[in-house]
Structures are given as C-alpha cells and as structure tokens.
Design a protein that fits this description.
The structure is a homotrimer of 345-residue chains.
Chain A: H1 3-10, E1 13-15, E2 24-25, E3 35-39, H2 45-50, E4 55-59, E5 70-74, H3 77-88, E6 97-98, E7 103-104, E8 109-110, E9 115-116, E10 121-122, E11 127-128, E12 133-134, E13 139-140, E14 145-146, E15 151-152, E16 157-158, E17 163-164, E18 169-170, E19 175-179, E20 183-185, E21 191-193, E22 199-202, E23 207-208, E24 213-216, E25 221-224, E26 229-230, E27 235-236, E28 241-242, E29 247-248, E30 253-254, E31 259-260, E32 265-266, E33 271-272, E34 277-278, E35 283-284, E36 289-290, E37 299-301, E38 306-307, H4 308-318, H5 321-344
Parallel strand pairs in A: 2-3, 3-4, 4-5, 6-9, 7-10, 8-11, 9-12, 10-13, 11-14, 12-15, 13-16, 14-17, 15-18, 16-19, 17-22, 18-23, 19-24, 22-25, 23-26, 24-27, 25-28, 26-29, 27-30, 28-31, 29-32, 30-33, 31-34, 32-35, 33-36, 35-37
Antiparallel strand pairs in A: 1-5, 20-21, 37-38
Chain lengths: 345, 345, 345
C-alpha cells in the first residue's frame, strides 16, 4: 500500500515521500525498508534516530523526523498505529455456519451468519447473534445470550444464564459465570455452599483476557459495563460491578460486591477488598492493595493504599530505614551526654 | 412460597406477616416487594432501613426490623440466607447417562446415574461415582477416581491417577494434577525436568475455583483435605497439604511441600513460601507474603509477614516516614546548636 | 531394581548394600523399606536421621549416612533424584496416530508417529512434529508449527501462527498467542482495540505451566527462549522476551515489551513493569515489584524493588516503626527540656 493512501486512510498529515510502498507495521527496533513504525513513548527517541523504517507515525511536532524516513503526523499516534496495523494485516475470515462436530441443542438459536467451530457446546435456549464467531471448545450454557459481532476464542466457558452484549471479545480460556466463592460457616466449623444462581452481564464492547474469571453471585448480578477492558488472569468476584471504560490489567483481583467506577485504571496485580466503592477515574499503580473505598480521581499506591505522592515519598525513605534507626540511636547518645554534662554543672 | 413456610424450613423465628408470598432472595439494595433479603454486615444497616423487601433475615436481635418488613431471626443468618436461596432457586436437572459425543474408554466405569456431557474425555480405568455430574469438555485422565455427588464444571482437567472424593465441586477450567514445577540445574546451567508421577488427592466436600491449579509432585502426594474451599486462580504447588476446612481466597499461591493447617484462612493474593508449616487456625490478610512457618492461631500481615497488630501500627507510621525523617533532621540541627552552645561556655 | 544398578545408571558412588531391591522413590518423611529417598536441603537433616528408607541420595560427604541405610553420593543430588524417579516410574505410552474424534484440517501435516487425542482441533496449515503428543481438547490454530518430542497437555490453546520448538512441554490450560492487552484511547474516552497479529515463538526445551498465558503482540514477536521454565498462572504480556534458562515461578506477571535476561529467576507473584530490561542472572524474591530496569546479576526485593540486602535490613526496621516514632517523640521532649534549661541560665 502506498504511504499516501495510508495517510489518507488514517487522516494523518504526510511529510516526505508518499509514493513509498508499505508492506507492514513494525516495532521501532525491528523496522526496515518497506515498514511503517510509530513512536509515542519518549523512551524510544534514540531508537527513532536510528530507525531504518520507511515511515513513522509521530505525535504532533514534538519529535523530529529522522532523515530519509517519511512521517505521518497524528494527534493520536497510538490510535493511528492501531488502524495502520488493521489496514495492513490479513486476517482469517471466519467460516459461517455450525461445524459438523459442534453440539448445539435444538432449542438454541444461532444466527445464520454466525460461525460455530468444532467441539463447541451450546446449551438449551441459548442465542448467538449475527456475525458472532465462536472458536473451538467453547462451552455455552443453557439460556446464555450472546450479541452480534462478538469473538469468543477457544476454551471459553460461559455458564448458564450469562448475558453478553455485542462486539464483546473473550480471549481463550476465560470463564464467565462460575460460582462465586460463598460459603457459610456451620456451627461445627465446616462450610456450607451458598448457591450462586445470580446472573453475570457483560455489556457491549467489553474485552476479557485469557484465563480471566468473572463469577456469578448468590443474588443480584455481576456486571462489567460497556467498553471496559480486562486483561489476562484477572479475578472479578461475585456481585462486582466494573464501570464503563475501566481498564483492569493482568492478575488484578477484585473481591465480592465491590463497585469499580467508570474509567478506573487498575495496574497489574492490584487487589481490591470486597464491599467497597472505587470512585470514577481512580488509578491504582501496580501491586496496590486497596482495603477501603477510594474517592473519585485519586491516584493510589502501596498496601494499604495511600495517595501515590505520599507513597512515593514514603517508599524513598523506606530503604533508608536502617540509617534513620542509627540516626536516632546517635541522637540518643549525644543527648544523654548533654544531659549528663548539664546535670554535672 | 409463603414466608411462614420458609421460616419453618430454615428454623428461623418469624416476626411479622407470615402469609406474604416470597418469590426470590435479593440483595439488600435491590430487594423489592415479594423479595426476601438478609443483613449480617453492619455496613448495610442504613440500606436495611431503606429496604423495600417484604422480609429480611437478621442475626439475633441486634438490628431493628424495618417498618412493614417481616423478619426472620437466625443465629446464623448467612447460613439461613444460603438455604433460602437454595429453596427458591430452580436449577437445571442434569441428564443422567453418557452424551453421544463423549469419549469414554471401555475400561472406565461410570455410574448409571452419573451425567457425562458432550466432549468429555474419560481415560482408561477411570471411575465416576453415583450422581456425579461432568460438564462439557472435561478431561479425565487414566485411572482417575471420582466419588459420588460431585459436580465437575466445563473444561476441568483431571490428570492421570488423581483421586477425588465425594461431594467435590470443581469450577470451570480448574486443573488438578498438572506436573509440579521441578527442575534440576545441570552443570552447564540448563535445567532437567524432574518427573512428577506423584498423586493428587482431593478429599470429600472440597470446592476448587475456576482456573485454579493443583500440581502433582515427584514423590508423595499433594492433598487438599476434607471441606477445604479454594477460590479462583489459586496456585497449589507440588506436595502441598491443605488442611480441613481451610479457605484459600482468589489468587493465593502456595509453594511446594508446604503444610497449611486446618481452618487456615488465606485472603486474596497471599503468597506462602515452600517447605514451611502454617499452623491450624492461622489467618493471613490480603497480599500477605509468608516466608517462614507460622504458629497456630496467629493473624499475620505484610511482607515479610508479621503479627497483624504490629503490621497495622507499622503501616500507619509508614506513610509518615517523610515527616519522621524531617523530625530527625530537625533534632540533629537543634542538638548540634545545643552542643555548640555548651562547648562555647 | 537393585540399588547397585541404580547407582550405575545415575553414576553415583554407592555406600552400603547394593543388593537391596528398590521399588520406588519417596520423600524423606514417607520413605520405608524398599524406598530410595534424597536429601539436599539441610532442613531435612533430622528427618534423615529418622528415615526408614533403604537408601538415600546425598550430596558430597557433608551429611552422614543414617545407620542401616545405603547411600548414593552425588555431586548433583537433585539431578540424580530426578533420574531415579524417571528410572522407577512407569508412564503411559502415548498411542500414535490421530483419534477418530479429533478434527484435523486436511492441509495440516501431522507426523505419523505423533499422537493426537480426542477432541483436538488442528487448523489449516498447522504442522505437528515427530513423536509429539497432543492431549485431549487441545486447540491448535491455523499455521501453527509444533516441533518434535513435545508434550501438549489437555485444554491448551495455541493460537494462529504460533511457533513452538522441540521438546517443549505445555501444561494443561496454558494459552499461547491470545491477543495482547493493547487499546488506544479515543478522544471520547472509549478504547479502540489495537489488532495483535504479531507472532509468539516458544523455543526448544521450554516448559510452560498450567493456565499460564503468553500473549501475542501488535508488531514484532513475543519470545520465550530455549530452556526457560515457566510455572502456573504466569502472565507474559505482548512483546516480552524471556531469556534462556530463565525461571518464572507461579503467578509472576510481566508487562508488555519487557526483556528478561538469561538465567533470570523471578520467584512467586513477582511483577515486572513494561518496556524495561532485566539483566542476565537477576534474581527477584517472592512478591517483588520491579518498576525499572535492573542491572545484571542483581538480587532484588520489595516494591519498588531495591537490592535484597537493603530490603532485608529495611524490613527488619519496618516492624519497629512505632518504636522509632516514639523514640523521636521522646527525643523531642528531652531536647525541649534541655533547651529550656539552657535558655533559663
């Protein structure tokens, strides 16, 4: 594809030779002739100077174009990068229809142009919407509803009564609707299972990562709101409500009945306690542990979570604790000497 | 169902109108007319005052019944709640027999009233007990033994020779009996796999969460004792022994050969080192890291884990470390002034 | 098997009765007559004195042989232990050929002596090498290449275009090649998916644990180099490069585009930020959080990660923070008294 056509497609300002043929999008370190690359992270400024790419997508006018490399200027370079990848990638066209080795209950309704792969199991009364693609080994329980244009990758488990919107992507091995972890202690110290017949709702445009688990509750619902993106190996417990356009990074865990606000960002391995409220636009840095509700807009870190600024300062002191301890001992010795001196006079 | 019948069934004391028809159990925030709800966490006392539920299960006499809402008094309200959910929930009756698209080796023995779903693979010499329900895509290895009244949800992997008791529940995607992480370093710095032919035993009444992994050891066994409950995405390494009625919350990780006592509670994302002993009735709060053995009954927090009381106090000081550092610097300056003053006299 | 034959096979020096028949390898606590056991961890020295094993593998000459127990002396006792386990364990011979209930696209090439189990799905143009064993319910995408002598356990997902070397072991439920977590924020605050068509390469002699996830990138590749061993429930994000003979323990998470050096050891639940470089031979202790690049050979701990020695010292002081705070307050009071005293003169 000619670079000038790509520029048109992306709505980017072209600087340099628009006639160059672009075959693929590459990372800044690996790019060679015929490649389009992109830089938005200033960490890669020096790599940009060395790049052998034919063209690069750059934010605004901050970074200079390297010599001999055409430039596409974009106010949203990461978006433009993604669209360029989409433009230049050939993808496997799904085969519409139900594979002969799938098992679909007669009462299930599957759109004619949906694609159902081998070894898919679809339960009684389930519905699968138009153009939705179901990969191999997906298990769809009774009465599950899946909207249009979804992509459900291999080995996903969708348990009974789960509701999935449109344009939802579930990566391989994700489990939606397993029983929440609810057990009541009997007087003899053993536990009795609390049944978990509540529903799980995954709204439109949500993506859920590989081997992530979203549990169903005893009562009410677990809900992931429109546009939220959930990475791999995340635990969303029973009765949790995740806000619109929230980002939950890998290995985050959210305990039961907690509300996560809209546009919240939880970095990797963050843990959130149950029955609390994380306000809109909160950010928690990696490995943060959040035991109590957090006001909207806060940026928190550490365990227990405190404002990120305080945590950064306290962490900087933490590693010097042995020095501080020694400083205190020194002060005590000096002070004792002074006290003796004064007492003697 | 009439409330008075529910009261009888649960053995609760009824206060108010026993004739009201109850259709479902709901969360305190969502409950409306015809709903039964429950409160045990005092966090929800104000929600209780506002509830539109027809009836509520309450602990003892601590909380007042809201006006116009009948009350079921229970010494164990969470247990009563669970039993009410069970009473009012219709569940899918499993279909006894082996699905035509299951693959069961001829030498396997499957109870006549067990239910084996589509795409289940059952290996040579495996046995499946009475009334056990095997969901779609479950893989059961050679010589596996599964007891009576178990529920094995979709996509569970049960590897060769694993022994599973009765009334065990395995949530979707759990893996029982994968090889432990055992590698010996060769003199050239590469690793050689230590074979892991040991067994895994899951005793009666255990529940294991979605996508949790329980590894088999090289020698001896990995064992989860009767009544223990394990949440999602937990790692139980080779040779670990989890005590009776222990609770392992989501994303807990336990390294090899460690013993977890009876009734231990490990909250979310706790990590436990290998080759140590966690005494009976120990509790570890969320994200605790336990590098050494812990005495029975202890409550521990932090990494490295210390008594919870000490950790709470130390954490409260942690965020004030920059102040402490400044206070020490101030003290040093003031002390230096005094020392000079005294030296001058 | 006679102990003397085992000694020959392992190349160990035999002390004691070589005629004793050994039936199995056991853990030091459980071993009885006819068992071979092993001790390298000095924690188990007292168990060694009590053992009822017929023979024990010991390192060098450090530990004395218990009375009545023959000894195999090995410079690498854990390696010798593993080889003894292999020698004495009967394993299930895989059945060569394609199971009648597998679904293999006609354009896929499967070696004649490979073994493909029930409910395996093999996509267009995939290749499976000699003697490779594919367990039940494995999903192999289009154009995937798998080398020789691999073992792919049940429920593994291998997505399109993934390249897997020889002698690779993938434990049950592992997901290789799911889409990386890449989303660009649109001006309206919603996210747009960045397509992730890049490749994943798993080199020779790698092992990947149960339910671990290795993501594919938008551009370039995710690569796990020869001989690296990855435990269960690990997250390897898009574009990560894991070095040769690295060890990633359970529940480790590595964010996007990070490079992990050769022979790096990340203990359980360690988290590593994106776009950084962990030098060769780095070790991070359990639960460490690494926000920045680490020089080769460093041993780091804590979050944010600092040198392990500093962290051990600082952690020892941490639990005494309330005392330090009190000591500072005491110093302030004493100093104020002195200052008053001097001012009065």
């Amino acid at each position: 594809v000619k670079l000038s056509e790509i520029a048109d497609h992306l709505g980017c300002r072209l600087e340099g030779d628009g006639e160059v043929e672009i075959g693929r999008v590459s990372g800044i370190e690996d790019a060679g002739p015929g490649d389009l690359t992109f830089v938005s992270n200033p960490r890669y400024a020096s790599a940009l100077r060395r790049t052998r790419a034919s063209a690069v997508i750059l934010a605004g006018d901050a970074l200079p174009a390297p010599p001999g490399c055409a430039t596409l200027r974009s106010p949203t370079p990461y978006l433009s990068f993604g669209r360029a990848v989409r433009l230049l990638t050939r993808t496997d066209a799904p085969v519409p229809g139900i594979h002969r080795l799938a098992d679909v209950e007669v009462s299930a309704r599957v759109a004619a142009d949906a694609s159902v792969a081998a070894f898919v199991s679809v339960g009684r009364g389930a519905t699968i919407g138009a153009r939705t693609v179901i990969g191999p080994h997906v298990s769809i329980g009774p009465r599950v509803s899946i909207g249009e244009d979804c992509v459900i990758h291999s080995h996903v488990s969708i348990r009974e009564d789960v509701v999935i919107g449109s344009r939802v992507v579930l990566q391989d091995g994700a489990v939606v609707g397993a029983d929440g972890f609810g057990f009541a202690r009997r007087p003899d110290g053993t536990y009795e299972k609390i049944p978990q017949p509540g529903v799980v709702v995954i709204e439109d445009d949500v993506e859920i990562g590989a081997n992530t688990t979203v549990d169903r509750p005893a009562v009410g619902e677990t809900r992931i709101r429109a546009g939220a993106k959930v990475d791999n190996l995340v635990q969303v417990a029973h009765g949790v409500n995740v806000g619109s356009n929230a980002l939950l990074c890998a290995q985050v865990g959210i305990a039961g009945s907690t509300r996560i606000g809209n546009r919240v960002v939880l970095a990797g391995q963050v843990g959130v306690a149950g029955h609390i409220d994380i306000g809109d636009d909160v950010t928690a840095t990696a490995q943060t542990g959040i035991p109590n509700s957090v006001e909207q807009g806060a940026v928190v870190s550490g365990y227990p979570a405190i404002p990120n600024r305080d945590w950064l300062r306290a962490s900087a002191v933490f590693k010097r604790l042995p020095e501080l301890k020694k400083a205190i001992a020194d002060l005590e010795a000096r002070l004792a000497r002074l006290e003796q001196q004064l007492a003697r006079r």
